Amino acid sequence: MAHLQKNYILFKSPVPESCRTVLASGGFADKGPECILGIDEAGRGPVMGPMVYGAAYWSKADDEEISAMGFDDSKALTADQRASLFDKIKETPSVGWVIRSISAEEISNQMLRKVPVSLNIISYAAAMQMIQTALDDGVNITKVYVDTVGDPAAYQERLTRHFKGAIDFTVAKKADSLYKTVSAASICAKVTRDRLLEGWVFPEGPAGFAGGAAMGSGYPSDEKCVAWLRAHVDPVFGFPNIVRFSWGGAGREILEEKAARVEWDEDEGPPPGMQSIAGFLQPANKKRRRAKYFHQRGLEVVHDF
């Protein structure tokens, strides 16, 4: 299911029955079974396509059984193995998942703002959004494992503070190979990103755009990717919106080489005798002229007695 929440798109599964909050006696909501959740991403480094964050969760009581399903770091699996395991995740009623896709356009808009938002901050926000989505759905998340972005200790402290200490966090390098919930999350993220790229529909129009395998891996070190960027740069509008304009490297070099250079005229100020708009907004430095009555009597403003 795809859900538009607060201007971003989340894909999420129904909440597993084994993770649902139940009603206690008297009709009051009681906390459901304790659940663990793992988080990982795919597509952090490419110049093309979305960065996709995945979360997978299940009850602590089911951990041993679900962990035996064969989840592993998505990078250690073949494409067919990942696809098969993703289907198994979706078909297993005791496994829940949340996916947050962050488009190239969203990444560029954030990172090219007047006050830039770093990719790490974008990543932190995505992780928090997925955890909050599970909590809002009534899942009693008590333990979360996260594959780190930046310093693990600082990231862990940030998450703990954001959720006011209610959740026990473990943030670690290579968490996708250490914790099965993170392994499952990495599979969700990687397969989703691959399928988004394979089925990409260019809003700029289909004419002249070669998608799918022609784009290569999307990484700026990939010769096929660089060749695609060279073939699809517009001298006025730059790249299609599948490309991250905020990336340096090959993409930036191609823009500087093949796109039209824009030179902005310097602001020469308002015509003579006309005050600028900024002048209305800035406090005047001139001392305000006091009434004649005060001058005649030698009266001054006194601050200290």
Automatic annotation (TrEMBL):
Query: Which Pfam families does this UniProt record tie to the protein?
Result: RNase_HII (PF01351)
Instruction: List the NCBIfam families.
Output: ribonuclease HII
**Signal sequence coordinates:** none
The UniProt entry's sequence similarity note says: Belongs to the RNase HII family. Eukaryotic subfamily.
Q: Which residues form the RNase H type-2 domain?
A: 34-259
**Species this protein is from:** Heterosigma akashiwo
| The protein's name | Ribonuclease
**Reported cofactor(s):** Mg(2+); Mn(2+)
